[in-house]
Amino acid sequence: MPNSTVAHAAPVRQTFSVGPYLILPDLLLAVVLGFGLKFRFRVLFYALFSYICISGILLTTGDKMQDYSIGSTLGGQFFTATHLLLFSEPLAQYRHQEDKYEPKKWSLWRRMLWSWCIVHSPRGIGWNYQVSNIPPRPLPTPKWTFIRSRLLQVVQFYLLMDVAQSYIHMNTLFTRPPPNATITSQGWLLQMISGAAWMTTPYAGMSMQYLLFAVVSVGLGFSDPEEWPDTFGTWKHAYTVRNFWGKFWHQMIRRYVTSIGKFVCRQLGFQPGTWPSSYTQLYIAFFVSAVLHCFGDAMVGWEYLGASFPFFISQAFGITLEDIVIHLVRRTGLKVAPRISTAIGYMWVAVWMTFSLPWYIDWAVNAGLGRSEVLPVSPVRYLLRAVSSFS
């Protein structure tokens, strides 16, 4: 009698569509905020919004790196909705510097457009909720001068990403990883280079996206050049792990990690400015950041859910260790020249990031994200092939 057992093939995932899972929820959120609904109705919409976000990560783009990026974007949308629907009332609390009247007195259409601007202003430039540690705003500049300079920056970031991606695609650890591959296997120096190359991709990618939005917005007259400070902070502040995340990297998520952290502190009865409040907010911030990226993990594959979590939550522990050391050094009364202490700080950040980044990168390498082609064209690899053909 023939064996009737049939191996079940893995279910085929449906293709992700930007319209119903990114654009439509975004517009609906602005509509709901524009109506100024009561809290119980906002909670109902929040449940629907959360369902759409979770449904989105069940789909796939067909590319693992893109899946991770879009999944993390869905995580960001989820927490943006959490902040705007549960922890704030934009119509009552928020004002833009150009608002002359209360938004409640405006037409519904204008309120929805105003709310859409809030959804897409995570740093609150020009709003009364502007978050801390924003880079300096550009000086008033002629429109076309601003556009030319930002387009030049787009080209620079593209080439920077291309250099990083060329290194990744020329390193067999990323393109043909052995079982249980780890970036620590190639030695400390290449571990540092691999970590820097991997993180350059989101750094340059988010910068290019932001700059292109700035060019379009200023070009169409929707905003002025001075409303578009740099995407990230300056490297000169990144001499502590706290500053690396707080002043350099975490610009776009500070609005909701702050509101969630403060909410938790209020529920626990911690007074603002005390160390229990400060460190609770620190750990909540990285917990939220970790969960956000877990949306990306899940979109790559449910077996990877939580893979990003250890790296992001570890940053809170690294900052705590850093604070303890700084406190002990200050208690000893040891005087260190500012240049020396800053140089030591940069070295410490480099060591910490090199030490912790494998928790973020190794799983992704083994999942095959290193094989994804992020850029449509690679001038750097084209140039390298041209040079090698003549040698």
From TrEMBL:
Gene Ontology molecular function: any one: O-acyltransferase activity
Domain Wax synthase: 228-313
BP-aspect Gene Ontology terms: lipid metabolic process
Keywords: Membrane, Transferase, Transmembrane, Transmembrane helix
Subcellular location, record wording: Membrane
Transmembrane segments: 20-37, 44-62
GO CC list: membrane
InterPro entries associated with the record: Wax_synthase, Wax_synthase_dom
Pathway(s) annotated for this protein in UniProt: Secondary metabolite biosynthesis
Pfam families assigned to the protein according to its UniProt record, in alphabetical order: MBOAT_2
Membrane topology term: Multi-pass membrane protein
UniProt-listed PANTHER family: LONG-CHAIN-ALCOHOL O-FATTY-ACYLTRANSFERASE 3-RELATED, OS04G0481900 PROTEIN
Homology family: Belongs to the wax synthase family.
Name of protein: Membrane bound O-acyl transferase family-domain-containing protein
Protein source organism: Lentinula aciculospora
